[in-house]
Sequence to fold (313 residues):
Amino acid sequence: MALKKFDYIIVGGGSSGCVVANRLSEDPGVRVLLIESGRRDADRWINIPATFFKVIEKGRDIVAYVGEPSKHLNGRPAIVVQGHVLGGGSSVNAMIYVRGQSQDYDGWAQDGNRGWSYSDVLPVFRDLENNMQLAGEYHGTSGELHVSETGFHHPLSRAFIRAAQETGIPYNPDFNGALQEGVGFYQTTTRDGRRWSAAQAFLRPAEKRGNLTVLTETRVARVTFQGNRTTGVQLENSTTYEAGGEVILCAGRSRPPDCYSFQAWGPRNIYASTGSPWWLTSPASAKTTRTIWNRQSRARRSIRSPSSARTRA
Ligand SMILES: Cc1cc2nc3c(=O)[nH]c(=O)nc-3n(C[C@H](O)[C@H](O)[C@H](O)COP(=O)(O)OP(=O)(O)OC[C@H]3O[C@@H](n4cnc5c(N)ncnc54)[C@H](O)[C@@H]3O)c2cc1C
Fold:
C-alpha cells in the first residue's frame, strides 16, 4: 500500500515548493511529500530559453486567468498566467534574475513578519545562488541556482541603454546589488545556455533521495484540520495524506491562490463576503498579504472568482 503518512507535505511543486522539498529532504530522518497539480517538466521547449514563448503559446503547462474587461486597460481584460508544471513559474518564466527591492522586505518585517527583513533574506539568497560573474555581499557562488550573464546583446539593446543614460538614468550593472534603480542588462537563471528552473536546480538532486515522494498531475482540494491544527491534505479524488509535522503551502499567488480557495486563509475581510470558512493567520502576515494584494489590485480587482475564472491548461 502506498505511503499515506509523511512528516512534511508540500502543496505545489513550483519555484518555492522545489526549494522547500530540497531543504527538508536533506534530513534523511524525515519523509517529505511534494504534490504538484501540473505534469512533469519534460517538454523540450521548457529548457531552451528562446522557446519559452512556445510553452506559453501551447498552454499545456500554464494556467491563464482572464479577468473582466477593465476601463484601466482600455476595455481589455487582464490576463494572469501561472506555471502549471513541475518547477511552476520557474519552468515557464522569462528567467530574469531580479530578487526585489530591499525596502519591500524591510516593509514586511516592519509589519511584524519575523525573518523577512532584507538582512534576514539576503544570506538565504546568497546560499541558493551560483552566480557565474558576480560575487561579494549580494551574491552567492556555490548554491544550486545557476545565474548567468546573457551571452548576446543586440546592438539596439546597447543603443537603448546608452540612450537611457543620456537622459540621466544611471547605468546599473547589478539589479540585485545595493540599488535596483537604473538601466542595464539583467542576468538570467540559466546554465550553459539552458533554463535553470527550480526543478532543475533543487528538485532533481532531491529526487535521488529516498525520503522524498513527488506526485504530479495531482491536485490538492483542501487542507485538513483538527481544531486549529493542520493534519494533512485531501486530494480532489478524496484520497487523504496525513502530515505528522507540517503542511507547507507553495501553490503560488498569481491569482486568488489555491491555498486561499482551499479554505480561505489570510485576512478575514477578503473572505467576509464569500461565506468561506476562515482560518487564522498572524496579524502581521495578514497585513502583508493585504499589502501585496493592494499592490496588484488593478489586475486583481478585475479577476473573477476562481470558480468563474476561465482556465486554460
Ligand atoms: C509567464 C511568466 C513569466 C515570468 N517571468 C519572470 C521572470 O522573468 N523573472 C522572475 O523573477 N519571475 C518571473 N515570473 C514570476 C515567477 O516565475 C513567480 O513569481 C514564481 O515562480 C512564483 O513561485 P511560487 O513558488 O510562489 O509559485 P509557482 O511557481 O507558481 O508554483 C505554484 C505551483 O503550485 C501548483 N499548484 C497550484 N494549485 C495546486 C493544487 N491545488 N494542488 C497541487 N499543486 C498546485 C501549480 O501548478 C504550480 O506549479 C514569471 C511568471 C510567469 C507565469
In short: The chain has two domains: 5-95+199-301, 118-188. Confidence is low (pLDDT under 50) at residues 256-261, 274-278, 291-313. The pocket of flavin-adenine dinucleotide is lined by residues 11-17, 35-38, 56, 81-84, 88-90, 92-96, 98, 219-220, 250-253, 258 (CB under 6 Å). The chain has twelve helices and twelve strands.
